[in-house]
Amino acid sequence: MKKTILKTALIASMAFGVISVDAQNKAVLEDFKPSSKNQPQQEYPMVNSQGYARFKIVAPAADSVRVSLGLGGKGGTKLAKAEDGTWLGTTEVPMDEGFHYYNVNIDGGKFNDPGAMNYYGSTRWESGIEIPAHDQDFYALKNVPHGNVQQILFPSPSTNSSRRAFVYTPPAYEKGLSKYPVLYLQHGWGEDETAWMNQGHANLIMDNLIAEGKIIPFIIVNTYGMTNEIKWGGMKDFKIEPFQTVLVDELIPYIDSNFRTLATKDKRAMAGLSMGGMETHTITLNKPEVFGYYALLSGGTYLPEEIKEKSQVKMIFLSSGSKERPERILDAATKLKNAGFNTVTYVSENTGHEFQTWRRSLHELAPLLFK
């Protein structure tokens, strides 16, 4: 969910497979390949080994086509019209590694790229593109035992509805009788309960860590945080009470009744990215008897004086991207440690407010839980 302002760097010679030059006079290697997030059999969008993205849109009657990347879709890559009516363009600079939302602006209208798969972000289903990461192996689909991700519908009297959640159970769950700890893992503003498994690959991260013997297997639960009714920038107007009731009084009892869980505070964690971190911060402070592990992923910090019962907290985890002013979490962690809290920090190198930061954060967090 990062705001990235990009311009065109496409030159005519790219069609012949030679090296082009970006707006800063850097060589752009012509080793572009289709993005892993493309629709089946679609060549564009493409990415190269340096992290540049290239787009091709068929819009022969259009006067202007621009690809907008990042939360809110501001700025973008201006495409140039070819003789055959297609529009082509390459980002001015390399993009950060990992997943990015984007949309296509054609003559002022916002559309999705027909070549890319769609992901829920920025309060709408947006196109997605994946920039290959040097460390992508930890969330790769491998030949290891896989857990199960299932959709559940749970009753919610407080909202007079049935609500949806996704539940990840570890590979051995279906064949055994063991009970498991649970992590309640929240999405950010503009997203929903599909984000962590689709964009975040949380299930693959867990499968690989379990196969490597690096974590205690646990269940993950994702549900909608009721955040998107608040417009971007209006976080001060968000009221936690409705979602807190859904989570603590309705969802958790349902999970404990319908799955084999270790239904105690010390075997229950809450974490969230961005606005989901704000929810985690508030609910864990309001309900210290419910969760033993707290994790804020680009989602703020805790102050020692906010936490009324230190003995209730097993661990606090704070993370951010290196482009998100990580000194804030590092300073907060020092104060928490000095006050006697078990606090761990993680900074994702060369990423900002985006899913590569949060994938890496979950990868670092998971081995620390439920020890």
Notes on the structure:
InterPro entries: AB_hydrolase_fold (IPR029058), Esterase-like (IPR000801), Ig-like_fold (IPR013783), Mycobacterial_A85_antigen (IPR050583). Pfam families: Esterase. The protein has 371 residues and is of the alpha+beta class. The protein folds into two domains: 12-132, Immunoglobulins (Immunoglobulin-like); 138-368, Alpha/Beta hydrolase fold, catalytic domain (Rossmann fold). The chain has six helices and 21 strands. The protein has helices spanning 195-198, 202-211, 241-258, 275-286, 327-338, 355-365; strands at 20-21, 27-28, 33-34, 46-47, 53-58, 65-69, 77-78, 80-81, 86-90, 98-106, 109-111, 118-121, 124-131, 148-156, 161-169, 182-186, 219-223, 268-273, 293-297, 315-321, 343-348. An eight-stranded mixed sheet has the order 14-15-17-16-18-19-20-21, sandwiched between helices. Strands 6, 7, 10, 11, 12 and 13 form a six-stranded antiparallel sheet that branches.
